[in-house]
């Protein structure tokens, strides 16, 4: 379960950070660069405090877990309730969900984040840029079982009132992203290296590459300072850095630090898996940067 816990923490942080990011954009709109869509208007009224869930007397079955729903963080889903049972992960979950809820619920899996060129029938997005394909099953019941597969698992109602769900997941497996994808990424990296100017060329603006490695959406890379590769880069004024996301999760390259927040010097907004953000450093100085979604990801560029 450790992997899921980490993913759950990452997801929670992501939701908070995206919220913070929107708040920051609110008073930092003079900062040029690709902008995130308009701030999400949220009802800031505190959730009504409930003394007890709706079915407190109901005994829990052995080996089952209980979850309480909250406002669906998906854009356009603000009037819905969602209980996330398996947080979004780059790994694919599959298993059988047994559920017993306080009212009729719909069953949801997410697949993705998906590429911008994919146009599935139903999508779900927390921020307008990270898009998931949505599978939505409405059995019009409160109790049942469902064989599922996807990058996240949740249950849902189209109401604003909280619900409680008891659940158990049988035969849960987590499959890592397909090996084929990794091969394609490697080929892309090799192709990119070929276009990088040779080191012995005379002076002139150069392009450097910093990667956002696979697996950085869960903590751990910070222990060896490898959340960006290389995490610390020295270049000359006028040089460009291509920040290449070779991960499947979306990341940002945001000037500043997790402690002090965005500096406003540069900000990629979300860079999807496989995408690149480029920035040309015209002025000498030391530039710290971080990922707004995964605040353990930090790096620096020193410009001479
Ligand atoms: Cu990140």
Description:
With 304 residues, the protein is mostly beta strands. It has 2 domains: 40-175, no CATH class; 179-303, Sandwich (Immunoglobulin-like). Helices cover 14% and strands 38% of the residues. It contains 2 helices and 16 strands. Strands 1, 2, 3, 4, 5, 6, 7 and 8 form an 8-stranded antiparallel sheet that branches. It has a 5-stranded mixed sheet with strand order 10-16-15-12-13, with no helix packed on it. Strand 5 and strand 6 (132-150) form a beta hairpin. The longest helix is centred in the first third of the chain and has 25 residues, at 2-26. Copper (II) ion binds at residues 216-217, 251, 291, 293-294, 297.
SSE class? mainly beta
**Into which percentage range does the β-strand content fall?**
35-45%
The quaternary structure here is single chain
**Major β-sheet, in short?**
8 strands, antiparallel
- Element-by-element helix/strand order: HEEEEEEEEHEEEEEEEE
Ligands (ions, cofactors included): copper (II) ion
